[in-house]
Amino acid sequence: MITRINHIGIAVNSIEEAVKLYTEVLGLKLQDIEVVEEQKVRTAIIPVGESKIELIESTDPEGMTARYIEKRGEGMHHLALEVSNIQEALETLEKKGIQLIDKVPRTGAEDTRIAFLHPKGTKVLIELVEPVE
Ligand code: ZN
User: Which CATH number describes the domain made up of 2-130?
Assistant: First the structure.
């Protein structure tokens, strides 16, 4: 069901500032910056081998990411696991007693289909990602 770690999401106040660390200091390459309207965020994708780092900056002070930073500060926000069939994965996990934030997948960065699991049961916020073929 799960095929790899798609990305690790890091919540930041300023993408421009955070990108400097990952590119100029750590020597990685910025792939793309895009606005994901549905999630009220701007994301920067930085590939690292088979996986990616996703920097997330809120575009709305009332948004999920803004509230997260307010509460817990900048830092690791979620772990994104890639699945081949997101709808099937959600149904299977729900049957196993995992609490879902999204019962129906929504649109994520790079037009992927994504859904979040509730951190209550998983200890860390997990995002499932079904890539676009
Ligand atoms: Zn993500």
Answer: 3.10.180.10
